[in-house]
Design brief:
By secondary structure, the protein is an alpha/beta fold. The protein has two domains: about 300 residues, Aldolase class I (TIM Barrel); about 90 residues, no CATH class. About 45% of the residues lie in helices and about 10% in strands. Helix 6 runs parallel beside helix 7 and helix 12 crosses helix 14.
């Protein structure tokens, strides 16, 4: 069976996505997985077992994810032990993925990270966070001087112990420029290597994302701090998480954050598999193997006890499934041409085969004869006209797609 159409691909799909798009579409960006830290703040999930966490770390490695936030070792004894065990696994398995841990800008949260690093023999990246927006400062009764002092003390402990620091300003997208400028300069002066721009409450639009990144880059240029890396961390409260993440990548962010299946507080974070999926389709990850992406999502769903919605992109049960007669007929005709490339794209914006899945054709009230004929042939049953019509008529009386055993029963009942 061929993998390319007989006619040039450009003749079969006119791609409006390419009109006026910047080339190359995306630069090299690092991927930062927050599943095992920020993702677990979702109130409906469970904390995975350490065995599941280790499996997820290995799948992240296979997917080419650069770094992962693996917990808050200063929060509980279990969190400390799990972070330590994952670091030991990364060392013993010689994994390339870099471990990171989160903590408040409090010395007491940094010390456990130092201890983990010393015991495991690997430098944890310290993601130390503090609220920076005026609404947060008002609610907490904080002033900027307190933020500067607290941040400096926490960063100093990490730097003096040889740990790289990413300085995280919570709610960056709603913070005042003058406050951010003071906090960023203070963090850089004390040795922070990264600044993490956060849309903590899912407030930003693509314009807000673009404005914040450009402003920060101009500020760093004015400071002469060209060595400082920028991260973008966002949530999905307005349903704009993915488009904001892709906007951040287009703006040249150095590291983009996400979680498996978009789990996280409230409606969740940006789904890292959808970032990877879209960058792959944009041609930015040409050499990055994403064949384990679905396995990663399925494991994450089981590990945190979060069922994957059937209509979820790529991973959901219905992602490549149809029972509609017109659509199924087009897919079947493409398959009849012996053309997997064509069959995978005629009614799908995501090529299923690229990620280890395939098109599925079901039989239901909106189906046509092509659906029934396809199902029968795929089960090595001759699609005799009378049998096809019998099953089709039965399907039209149901309010849902027929199940496998129901179809077999219809086949059996139609035989003498």
């Amino acid at each position: 069976m061929s993998t390319l159409p007989a006619t040039p691909q450009d003749d079969l799909i006119y791609d409006w996505n390419e009109v006026g798009r910047r080339h190359p579409p995306f630069g090299r960006v690092e991927f930062f997985d927050e599943t095992l830290r920020d993702g677990l703040q979702n109130p409906s999930v469970k904390d995975p077992s350490i065995e599941e966490k280790l499996q997820l770390i290995h799948l992240m490695e296979k997917l080419g994810i650069d770094a992962a936030d693996i917990g808050l070792p200063g929060s509980t004894r279990r969190a400390f032990d799990d972070v330590l065990r994952m670091c030991q696994e990364i060392v013993s398995s010689k994994l390339k993925i870099r471990p990171a841990a989160a903590g408040r800008t409090v010395v007491g949260d940094i010390v456990p990270m130092v201890e983990v690093s010393q015991k495991a023999g690997i430098a944890l990246e310290v993601y130390t966070f503090i609220g920076s927006s005026p609404i947060r400062l008002f609610a907490e009764g904080w002033d900027v001087e307190r933020l500067l002092k607290q941040s400096a003390e926490a960063i100093d402990v990490a730097v003096k112990n040889g740990l790289p620091v990413a300085y995280v300003t919570e709610d960056t997208v709603r913070s005042r420029p003058e406050v951010l400028a003071a906090l960023f300069k203070n963090a850089i002066d004390h040795g922070a290597e990264r600044l993490v721009l956060c849309d903590t409450v899912g407030h930003a639009t693509p314009d807000g994302t673009r404005n914040l990144i450009r402003w920060t880059k101009n500020l760093l240029s004015a400071y002469g701090a060209h060595h400082i890396k920028l991260d973008y961390h966002n949530h999905n409260d307005r349903g704009l998480g993915l488009v904001n993440a892709l906007t951040a990548v287009e703006e040249g962010i150095d590291r983009i954050h996400g979680t498996a299946l978009g789990i996280g507080e409230r409606v969740g974070n940006t789904a890292i598999e959808l970032i990877l999926l879209n960058l792959k389709l944009a041609g930015a990850l040409e050499h990055q193997d994403l064949s384990d992406l679905i396995a990663y999502c399925e494991l994450a769903g089981r590990a945190v006890a979060m069922p994957v919605p059937v209509n979820y992109p790529l991973v959901g049960a219905d992602a490549f499934r149809t029972s509609t007669g017109v659509h199924a007929a087009a897919i079947i005709k493409a398959q009849a041409k012996g053309d997997t490339w064509l069959a995978d794209r005629i009614y799908s914006g995501v090529p299923a085969a690229m990620f280890g899945r395939g098109q599925a054709i079901e039989i239901g009230p909106m189906s046509g004869a092509s659906n029934v004929q396809h199902w029968l042939r795929s089960h090595k049953i001759e699609p005799e006209p009378a049998l096809v019509q019998s099953i089709l008529q039965a399907a039209k009386t149901h309010a849902r797609v027929l199940q496998h055993d129901e179809l077999l029963s219809l086949v059996a009942s139609s035989r003498p």
